[in-house]
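Look over this today:
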Amino acid sequence: MRVALVLFLTLFASGGKLSFLEIEPHEIQTGGHATLSWDTAGVPSFIIGYGKVVGKGSAIVSPGNTTDFTMVTETRKGVQYKIARLLVSGSKGDDGYPSISDFDVAIRGKRAKIGYVDFQSIVWNILQSKSYGVRGDYVPTRPFVIFYTDFALRQDLVSRDERIRARRLAIAVEIYEPENAGTISFGVRTDLEFQYRGETEWRPDKDSSLAKGEAVKFVNVLEQAK
């Protein structure tokens, strides 16, 4: 039986125009694909899981796990969100991403003279350029957008402890809803793990100075990035 189209409509304050985000079909098997379509009613927007968009468009997507594609738009009435969920059946489960709760305490930063959507695009592009796998979520209870990565090996973080073979790092960036026009507050969190020589198990790294140092470095990157 044909799966019903999942369609989310939201009325923009600007000119009474309708924007939409949809996915067809709304369920696929692992390795399958779906069509993500959108219309931002002319307002620049960011689709978490895809990237920055404006106007009408569509793209073929094939995520490995169930994904909530979220379109974020900054309007005169504030930030608006639309979500289209794609269910992926037959996924392997553990996909190398840490749990959000595993990340350390956030190191805060600020960006001035930049829009909410533009800053999301900068964060997304920088994380992808560093060869991380990147995911994103909208957290309505706070609310903010969070981007987080899978683990990447970091040979530069291997300590002088000869028992340690390798360390790996994941990064999460929380982007809080703007309180003042043109000023964005954000937080960077890290998850650091290590592996002993002769073992395959990854263990949580208790060296908080290393984790905090990497978070501070990335805050500086985001405060200066264009």
Q: What stands out?
A: The helical segments are 116-129, 208-224. The chain has two domains: 6-89, 100-224. The first strand starts at residue 6 and ends at 11. The radius of gyration is 19 Å.
